[in-house]
Each structure stands twice: as structure tokens, then as C-alpha cells.
Amino acid sequence: xxxxxxxxxxxxxxxxxxxxxxxxxxxxxxxxxxxxxxxxxxxxxxxxxxxxxxxxxxxxxxxxxxxxxxxxxxxxxxxxxxxxxxxxxxxxxxxxxxxxxxxxxxxxxxxxxxxxxxxxxxxxxxxxxxxxxxxxxxxxxxxxxxxxxxxxxxxxxxxxxxxxxxxxxxxxxxxxxxxxxxxxxxxxxxxxxxxxxxxxxxxxxxxxxxxxxxxxxxxxxxxxxxxxxxxxxxxxxxxxxxxxxxxxxxxxxxxxxxxxxxxxxxxxxxxxxxxxxxxxxxxxxxxxxxxxxxxxxxxxxxxxxxxxxxxxxxxxxxxxxxxxxxxxxxxxxxxxxxxxxxxxxxxxxxxxxxxxxxxxxxxxxxxxxxxxxxxxxxxxxxxxxxxxxxxxxxxxxxxxxxxxxxxxxxxxx
Amino acid sequence: xxxxxxxxxxxxxxxxxxxxxxxxxxxxxxxxxxxxxxxxxxxxxxxxxxxxxxxxxxxxxxxxxxxxxxxxxxxxxxxxxxxxxxxxxxxxxxxxxxxxxxxxxxxxxxxxxxxxxxxxxxxxxxxxxxxxxxxxxxxxxxxxxxxxxxxxxxxxxxxxxxxxxxxxxxxxxxxxxxxxxxxxxxxxxxxxxxxxxxxxxxxxxxxxxxxxxxxxxxxxxxxxxxxxxxxxxxxxxxxxxxxxxxxxxxxxxxxxxxxxxxxxxxxxxxxxxxxxxxxxxxxxxxxxxxxxxxxxxxxxxxxxxxxxxxxxxxxxxxxxxxxxxxxxxxxxxxxxxxxxxxxxxxxxxxxxxxxxxxxxxxxxxxxxxxxxxxxxxxxxxxxxxxxxxxxxxxxxxxxxxxxxxxxxxxxxxxxxxxxxxxxxxxxxxxxxxxxxxxxxxxxxxxxxxxxxxxxxxxxxxxxxxxxxxxxxxxxxxxxxxxxxxxxxxxxxx
Lengths: 413, 493
Known about the structure:
The structure holds two protein chains of two kinds.
Chain A: H1 2-12, E1 27-28, H2 35-39, E2 68-83, E3 86-94, E4 97-103, E5 109-128, E6 133-154, E7 157-182, E8 198-209, E9 215-223, E10 227-234, E11 237-250, E12 253-254, E13 258-266, E14 269-279, E15 282-291, E16 297-298, E17 309-310, E18 315-324, H3 334-337, E19 339-348, E20 354-367, E21 372-385, E22 392-406
Antiparallel strand pairs in A: 1-5, 2-3, 2-4, 2-22, 4-5, 5-6, 6-7, 7-8, 7-9, 8-11, 9-10, 10-14, 11-12, 11-13, 14-15, 15-18, 16-17, 18-19, 19-20, 20-21, 21-22
Chain B: H1 2-23, H2 30-37, E1 44-54, E2 58-63, E3 68-69, E4 73-79, E5 82-93, H3 96-104, E6 109-115, H4 118-121, E7 133-148, H5 153-158, H6 162-169, E8 176-186, E9 192-196, H7 199-206, E10 211-219, E11 226-230, E12 239-245, E13 248-249, E14 256-265, E15 274-276, E16 281-287, H8 289-300, E17 316-326, E18 340-348, E19 363-366, H9 373-379, E20 384-385, E21 391-395, H10 397-405, E22 413-422, E23 434-435, E24 440-443, E25 449-452, E26 457-458, E27 469-471, H11 473-477, E28 480-488
Antiparallel strand pairs in B: 1-28, 2-16, 3-14, 4-5, 4-11, 5-10, 5-14, 6-9, 6-12, 7-8, 7-10, 12-13, 15-27, 16-22, 17-21, 17-28, 18-19, 18-20, 18-22, 23-26, 24-25
């Protein structure tokens, strides 16, 4: 494990993140960004099993789990943004979610997830004397959600389950644009006062839901012998971001900041999915999420020639996946015990004229006999952007999920 | 098996990295182009705005006359229309045998030994033509004497805090006093002076039993200059010599355990705009807001002051600001002949001290000096008085930032100026003390040469104040100009 963590920390240095939507909400980690879901193209919301774990989109699925699941996910993503022959690469390491679920037999199942729903992470600088630039730009933003979940199978119709979850929103966001002076428009004799003086345009603030403690998801799941389905509805909500904005000369030397609040109306989301068992251990699946944005998103801070808002569009995601379940028997060959996954997706971002096409390969690798698993997903694709302010991106990413599976509180059989 | 897996993933990670390094690389100007496409700058554009002919809205003198510590060095005399008194607080216990001898003696007496501030007078760069001093110095000696046989008497005196004692000194009611004249003769290298104390004081001391507290005040308001000597917290504290005869002294000789200096303003007018060196006075100047805001409004084409939302204006900021005032050195006088730096502090908001229409509680933040190298090399530092030129330029960046940021509440650009120490490197851009690597003759700001041996330190400021006097009425009565270096976050309209 130590070696694994070491390799992870080394890899994190090479990781890249999206440069799209930084002024709005940032990148959305769909389905909790779990490595297992990512491996099958973010499909599989309807796939049930002993230890599928918690789904933030389909809380009803949890009712079919039989084992306690603890799941921690990491994402390393590399992006190359391009536009008109120019390109720029960035990197990031993030932890999209942490999930814990406890099946309680006939009392249903409970779960808790800490989900980094939206994130913007960017820290780049450049000093180029040829073009007179001296800039450092940093975004650090996370809309975290704490998602308590409860699901139960109907006593009179055990193939059907109901689930509900509340999403308590928290987190903060900041943008720090530090600039050196450009003395090209002043007299040479006045240039001494600018020197290498740095000024930071700084804004930071916190996230919460307006006038409400949380937003909610309700779901219905049917598990059939061959086909399983789910349908979920997530309520709309208004994200409230209280921002303090000022100029900084150092961290302890600033102007009096001006406070403002931006409100982002996140629309309700419909999600559905199907999982079909082709043959023993072979599953194909398809998921769809749908959210109609009808209001633009006010950007974190204006200034210079930046647009005041990020225009939105209907965001939806269609994902197709395949999973070959590994054998649960520890004495089988190791290759047979691995979960093999593959998938592809098309996603319309919430940002107007931005869409994404991606594919993934993944695997769930059992470690030892005690139920610990490492899920790996390698993903890649392209984000197309037909807007003035966003560049298209190629991305590849590595997701790693550490999953512990146990049978706490259940008698051995 | 575990090792195999580790090798597999290590290999996988390495391949992924190599591939990504080939595919994912940035252009030299990639970030700048991306920023530009998003309407973001890659540097802040600096613009200057000069606002001329601003008439000072108000100028007020403030002098802090509360007694101050003289533990390090004391000043006695009169200079620049200010008189400087010194008070010593001396506590001592005397043995019975000495007291008996003192009472019985006809040749008893007391004197005060003061040690000249040799680090000043013997300094290599102290003006060579200043010494010797010769004067019949008229001194008023007054005293307060308390005696007690209580063993804890001296402890109780020591428990009186310095600040309480300074406060008490503002209402000085002496037990006795005497005007006397001392012949002062001080040449370079002299160490001390003996001031014989009045026989009335000795008479009172003869009556003491047990312990005594003697508070001794020296005033010389008609002196032709000031005299500086070491304070009690030095290796050369003043000494009270009390003797029964030429061989019988109170031993050890008492020293003061604290000292205070008191100043008195003897300017003809209480409201004249005169600053003095070495004392705690300041000139607080306010500029009117209207011409500055009007100029900004014209410059940017926006409304000033900013009145939207919480009214804090963060549309632009001041990178640097300086104010230029007229200067007439002929209305001032100084002791050492060197230029004196004018320091400036601006009134700005802090967390708990802010401006309101009823009460301006902004705190005074000292401004940072930025070096205009070309000007310094050509004509010296622009913030000096007693220096060539007829203008004084002061940096008020923090003040201008605060003012423009919060102008909507009606505040003005307000700053305070004071006379600092003599400035020795008037055309040197190092702006720091530095050591010379080889013997050299350097020229002080007054043009006089000083021979420096290898390893000597060339000072930025002289270590001691010049008790100078400078009249700022010319600076305040004439229009001033304010120059702003601005960074704005406005876009190209």
C-alpha cells in the first residue's frame, strides 16, 4: 500500500485538469466520479450487486447491496487545451468522492457520501518578457456535498427498491489573478514606480444553498433477472456564493473588499438507466441524465474584458458501458477474479456549446481474500468548445478507487 | 504477485507519462493566448494621472508634551523655540555612620555628575566646527525629597510605573528650587560635567533617616543650545555625589533609576505650522476629495465616488502615489547642517479603527519609500528638507489607496508628516547602512568629507536627531500636486 501511495503521489505531479468553466462552477464530477463507474463509461447506475456501493444519482440501488462498502476515489487528469494553433496543458489531482454504505438487511441500507460535485483547480504562471507578461492565475473551488442516503426494498415486492438522499452543500471558491506591471503607456521617467510590483485581483467566497439546508434525490430501482432499471429525480436548487472581492498587495495588505452574492439556479435533474445481463457475469448498460438550464451563470468575478456570465445549455449525458464481473471465489485464477469494464459517453456540458465525447477502460482488481479492491479506470476523450472564451480540450485521465468490502454486523454463513 | 502488480502499474504509469509528455506540451505564449481569449490580462496596465493645484483642506499641528523616557539619553537646554528639561528619579539608602558625619560636617555638599553623550559628540561625522561649547549656562534646579525609615520605602517607589511617574511630572510642585549658573566648557573628547547642587538641598538631605527618594529637575530655558548626556540605562548614568568632606562620600554614589525629558513649545504662535526635530510632533494634512475624485471621473469616464453595493471601490487601485509640495528652507533652522528626511504616514482603515462622519478613527500607517533612482542620482532624495531644491515630494500610496477605495463615506486623503533623523546619503541609492571595503573619503550630504577606514559603516541616517525647526507654511499654503500610478481592471470599451 505504501508503494502504491508513493506511486500515486508521483503521478499527481503529472496530472492535468480542465480549463473549461473555471469562472462558473468548474468541472462536474458526474456520478461521484467513482473509478468503478468511470471504467464503464459512467453507465451502470442500474447495476446491482453485493457491493456496488452508493450512487449519488440512484440512491435506490443501495438497497440491493449486501456488504458494507467503503470507497475512496482519486482522479488524475491531463488536459491539453487548443485553439487556433495555440495549446496549453494543465494538470490536477483530485479526490472526487468518499463513500460509505451499510446494508441493514430488512431495515434497508444507509450510506454517506462526501462528493466534490463541482471543482475548479488551476494554478499556472508565466513570465514572458518578449510579450511583457507576468501573470499567475489560480482557481481553487469546490462545491462539496455531504449526501446521506437511505434505501429500502419494498417488503411486498422485493425486486423494487426506493431510495432517497439529501445533498448538503458546502465548500468555497477563490480566484487569484496576480499580475506584474505593464509600463508601456507611461513616460519612461515614471516607470520606476511600477518596478516588479505585483498586484493580485483576488476573490473568494463560500457555497451554500439558498434558503434551504439541502437538495434532494429520490429514486426507484427495479432489479430483474436479466434487466434492471432505475429512475431518479433530483430537485432543483439555488446555489448561493457569497464573494469578497478586492485587490491584494500581499496577504495582509489589501483594499477593503467589496462583498457580493451570486446565485446560480441549478435545475432539476432526471436520470434513468438500464442494465442488461447478456450472459453469466456479462453486463451491458446504458444511462441517461438530463438537466435543463434556463439561466446563465454569473461568473465568479468580472473585470478587464471578461464576460459577466457563462451561458448555459441543456446538459445531458448518454453513457454506454460493459462490465464483465469477476468471480467472487478466491480460489479462482486472479485474472478471472478481476472486473473488466469498458464504456463510452457523450456529455453536453452545462456550458453553452461545450460537449464532450469520451471512452474508458477499467478494471476492479481484488487484493487478497479480504474483499479489498482497487478500481482503475483509464479514460480519454475530447471536449469540444464552440465559444470564444473556452478552448477545446483533449484529455486523458486515470481514476483510482480504493474499495474495502466487509460484512460487518452480519453473521457468517 | 504483489510485486508483479506493482511493476505492471509502474510500467503503465511511465508509458502514460511519456506519451502524455509528447502530446501534452504548452506553447511559450499558450497561457497568455488563453487568457486573452477569455478577456483576461497577462499584466496590469499602469497609467499615471497628475492632479495639480490642489489646495490643502486643512493642516493641523500636534505636539505631544507628555514627558518621555530619557533612560537612553537626556537633553537639556533650549533650541529651535523648544526648551528641554530633564528629571531624574533617584532612590538611595544611607548608612547611619555616613549620615552622622554628614550632619556634623561644615564642608558637606552634593553635586551631579553628567556624562556627555560621547557617541554623538565624538562621532567621526559629528560636525567638526560645532565644538567646543562654552557658555555660562543658567540652570534652574528644583527638587522633591521624600525620606522614610520604612524598610519597604524604596520598594514602594520602584513599584510606581514609569507611565504613572511621567503623568505625575506634568504637575511638578517642587519642595525647593534654585537658579544658578554653571560654566560649561566642552571640547571634543571631554567626558563629563560637574553641577554642584544647592546647599538647601544638602541641608534637607542631612535631615534624612533611612531611605530617600530625590526627584531632581534641571531646566535651562535660556540656554543657547541643547546639551545631551547619557541616561540612567547606560554604562555612564548620572551620578549623585553626596559628601561630608573631601574624603567622605556616600558610597556607592546613587544613580537615577529612571529619567524623563520634558519639552515646552516656545513658538510665538500655537497654531503655526512648524515641526521640530527630536520631539513627538506632527503636522496632519488633509487634501480635499472633490478635485481628486473629479480628476478620476474624467480620467476613467466613470462615477466617483463609487456608490453601488457596499460602496467599496475595487474597480482600480493605486500602485503608487506621491504628493509634491512647495518648500522654503529659509524658514527653518537646524543644528548639524545635514538634510533631514520628512517621514509620512497616512490615515487608513484597519479592522477596528475606521472612518465615520462623526469620528475619524483611522490609524496612522507609515508610508513605504520607493526609490526613484534616476531622480536620487540627479538631485537627491525628494523627501528631504534643508537640501537643494524648492519642492518636497512625499509618497502617500497607502493613503491614496484607502481614500479612493472608500471615498464614498466622505473621507479625505489625510496624512501626517514628521521630521526624521539627519539623512547622510542624499544621492546614494542603496538606502541602507553599508560597510566600506577599503579606506575611502566619502562626502556627507552637507558636502563635508569624512575619511572612512576599511570596515567602517556608512550610515543612512545619523543615529541622533537634529533638534531642528522647520516651517511648513509654504508647503501648505501653496497648491500641491498629487500624482497617481493606477492599475485598473476596466476592459477596453
